Amino acid sequence: MTQIPLARRSPIPPESCNLASAIEVVGDRWTLLILRAALYGVRRFDDFQAELKCPRTVLSGRLKGLVDAGLLVKRPYKAPGKRARPEYTLSAMGLSLRPILIGLTQWGDAWLGVGESPPISFTKAGTKAAIRAAFVDADGREVRPDQIRTVIRG
Amino acid sequence: MTQIPLARRSPIPPESCNLASAIEVVGDRWTLLILRAALYGVRRFDDFQAELKCPRTVLSGRLKGLVDAGLLVKRPYKAPGKRARPEYTLSAMGLSLRPILIGLTQWGDAWLGVGESPPISFTKAGTKAAIRAAFVDADGREVRPDQIRTVIRG
DNA sequence: AGGTCTGGATTTAGAAAGCGAACCCATACA
DNA sequence: TGTATGGGTTCGCTTTCTAAATCCAGACCT
C-alpha cells in the first residue's frame, strides 16, 4: 500500500484551504442526506422530511443554509389546482457535487456493502458498461492513484 | 442545465443505501477534517489537535470511531529516543477516499475559491499537467457527467 | 362566508453533543 | 529525583438536536 509520508501539519492551513471550506459547507450528516435526496429528484419540504425522518426544525435550517450557500434554489412551485409552494432544486453548484456523491456511493458499495450487488449502479448513456470514479489528465485519460502528485501553491 | 425529474422519494430508501451508509460513517465535520489531515500525512494525536483546533474529547472520540469503522489503523509508533506512542494511519479503506476528497477540493476551488489560483493542485507523476476527478468507463476513458445513467437494482 | 384540509414551516422544552480548561499517567531524559 | 512530553480523561457549561405541538396561508367544499 502506498504510504503517505509523515507530516506534523497539513501543507496549507485549514482556514485557507478550499477542501476545508467545502467541508464547512457540505460536511454535515443532514446536509449530505438532503443533497442525496435532491440528486434523486426530491424537491419539496414534506418529501425531504418523509425521506430523512429528521426534525422539521433541522430540515428547515439546513435548507436555508443550502440556499444561502448557493447549492439549492428556492422558488415557488405551482401544481395544477394547488396553491403555490416553494420547491428546492439544485443549482449548477449543487449539481456539480453529483460526481462526488456517486464516488461516495461506490466507496460505500466497495467497503460497506453487505455482500449483495449494489442496489444502484451507474453506466454510460447507451451502453451497459459500468463506470467508476477516477482521475483523468487534460485529455480525459485515466491517471492511476499512485501516479498522483500533490503540488502546493499551484 | 440538466434538470433532475421530480420525485417524491428517492429510488432506494436511505436505510438500504450505501451512499446513506457512507454518509453515516464520514458525514461529519470533524471526521472529514481528520481524514483531510490524515491524507496530508498527519498521524499523531497532538498534531491532529493542533491542526483542527477541536476539543481533545471530540478528537479522541472521532479517532476511535474511525478506527472502529476501519478507516484508520492505530498502532504503536516508536521515534528514536522516544517512548512508544500510538499513531493513526489510513487503511486501504481510508486511502480509497482520496479521490473523493480531491474531487471535493476541486469543487471548492471552482465554487468557493476567493478568486486566487487554488493553493493545491494535482498532477500526473513526471508531468506538469493538472489532473481532475472524473468518471471513466471500463477502458479508462472519461465519461462526461451528462452521459451518466443511473440504474436501479443493478 | 365559514369550515376543513394540506404543505410549509416556527415554538417550546428536554436530551444529547460540543466545548475549553484542568487534570492524569507513563516514560524518556537530565 | 525531578521535569518535560505526548496522549489522553474528567469536569462543568453552552450550544445544538430532537420530538411534539402549534401556527399560518391558500385551495376546496357546501
UniProtKB/TrEMBL annotation, chains A, B:
Cross-referenced PANTHER family: TRANSCRIPTIONAL REGULATOR, MARR FAMILY (PTHR33204), TRANSCRIPTIONAL REGULATORY PROTEIN (PTHR33204:SF18)
Keyword Transmembrane helix: no
Protein name (database record): HTH hxlR-type domain-containing protein
Transmembrane segment boundaries: none
Taxonomic classification: Bacteria, Pseudomonadati, Pseudomonadota, Alphaproteobacteria, Hyphomonadales
PROSITE patterns to which the protein is assigned, alphabetical: HTH_HXLR (PS51118)
Residues forming coiled coils: none
GO MF terms, alphabetically ordered: DNA binding
InterPro entries per the UniProt record, alphabetical: HTH_HxlR, WH-like_DNA-bd_sf, WH_DNA-bd_sf
Residue span, HTH hxlR-type domain: 17-116
Keywords assigned by UniProt, alphabetized: DNA-binding, Transcription, Transcription regulation
